[in-house]
Predict the structure.
Amino acid sequence: MNRYNLTIHQAHQLLKNGEASSLELTRALLEHIARVENKVHAFVTVTEDEALRQAAQADERIKGGDLTPLTGVPVLIKDNMCTRGIATTCSSRMLENFIPPYDATVVEKLNQVGMVMVGKGNMDEFAMGSSNEHSAFYPTCNPWDLSRVPGGSSGGPAVGVAAGEAVYALGSDTGGSIRLPAGFCNIVGLKPTYGRVSRYGLVAFASSLDQIGPMTRDVTDSALVMNVIAGYDPKDSTSVNYTVPDYTESLIPDLKGLKLGVPREYFVEGMQKCVEEVMRTAIATLEELGATVDWEVSLPHTKYALAAYYIIAPSEAMANLARYDGVKYGFSYEGESMWDAMEKTRGYGFGPEVKRRIILGTYALSAGYYDAYYLKAQKMRTLIRREFEEAFERYDALITPTSPTVPFKIGEKVDDPLQMYLSDVCTLPINIAGIPGLVVPAGFCDGLPVSMQILGKPFSEEMLFRTGFAYEQATGWWERRPEI
Ligand code: GLN
């Protein structure tokens, strides 16, 4: 077995049986990073020294008999989660030199179980985008075809895992940013229920939608990471005080007795024929595994989700990004006056997509337009949430595609924001409703990954894991790795 391309549970076995030390695993990974990183650009920072130091510490713990499933297993963290003493840039010029004085709660939790962090993952600036092309530094490339995008905004973390540069990663998802890149790179991505994982120390984009989640090779790993990162945090008032189960107990390889629904609105116009065929085969497999599938579910408000999202998310973003004034954080431009300094700080510090969102949000919230846009979008949000609630009275989970297309070419959509926004048409409604969504590899179209999205009611991550696990065990799509 090689020393990269391992799952968490495989790496854990090696550590447990004394067949490898965390230092050995980490060194193998760092060497692999040095080989492939100049092709894929998944990292903003490789934290080599820190990783080796943490691996040595993890080995000490293991020697002392203190070994949990994540101890000593190398992780990549999206660069919008604060890491004490290590730059956290959000792939923005604005935060290029920002060194946080504290750890995000998820980082602290991983630290407590003996984390080895190999680096910080590249992303669309401030998590705004679907392709990683909006990184202020460089785009990340899809390891299945280097001329294509990996999806965004957690493209770096997804590629890191898919290319064997990290065993697992943490991403964040506001409208699809964990799920789209997971799907585009043939890995597993979970957007947990809103409030399930603490957002403390996650640089805010749209606070009512943002959620941190695992990006892993398989479903078992996703459950293992959730066991550590989920739970109430007094530092995040939106985190929910609700017992965290042992998620691995839901990993059962059959679907007997489950009722699944397929909402037809997710098979949108313009969907690629091959993606649709892969989805139909995947759903038929779920039936073979014992589930009852209703292929004719309708969620008619789905078509308004994209419009509602692009009012709500920019409105919240515009408020959250007001703090970057050149005084409190990061980049600061010496101007002739206070206003001049602020204007130039924001003018040079933010890239075009971030500015577009700030303008959209400011417009939507301005007097006279607030009722026409923001209020209407919020009302639509309620309708979408209710529609899901009603569906989950009848079905244990809903099955949809993650995206209507396979990964597109770098450059194909970057100058056409509306086309770019359409990439998230199947993932945005889930954030709007606050429900969980799990993406698992489901097949290939001309050598490019296609994935399935499994949706459930709030706090039903176990149901999603069960469905995803049974499917994964029956099909094995997740095992395919790209050649780089
Ligand atoms: N692509 C969507 C956007 O640009 C979602 C991004 C995300 O989930 N962070 O807003």
